[in-house]
Amino acid sequence: MSDEERETRKPGRTARLGLGALSGLLAGCAALSVAELAAAAVRPEAGPVIAVGGAAIDRTPAAVKDWAIRAFGTDDKLVLQSGILAVLALLALAVGVLATRYRRAGAAGILLLGAAGAMAATARPDSTGFADALPSVVGAVTGAALLYFLTGRLPTSRRASAKPPEGPVREQGQGQGWDRRGFVVAAAATAVASAGAGALGRSLNGANGRDAVASRDSLDLPSADSPAPAVSRGAQVRVAGVSPFRTPNKDFYRVDTALVVPKVDAGTWRLRVHGAGTRGSRTFSYDDLLRRELIERDITLTCVSNEVGGPYAGNARWIGVRLADLLADCGVVPPSRGGPADQLVASSVDGMTIGTPVEDVMDGRDALLAVGMNGEPLPFDHGFPVRMVVPGLYGYVSACKWIDDLELTTFDAYDAYWVERDWAREAPVKTQSRIDTPKPFARPRAGTVMVAGVAWAQHRGIDKVEIRIDDGPWRDATLAAEDSRDTWRQWSYAWQARKGGHTLTVRATDRTGETQTEKRTRTVPDGASGWHSVVVTVE
Question: What is the pTM of this model?
Answer without folding.
Answer: 0.87
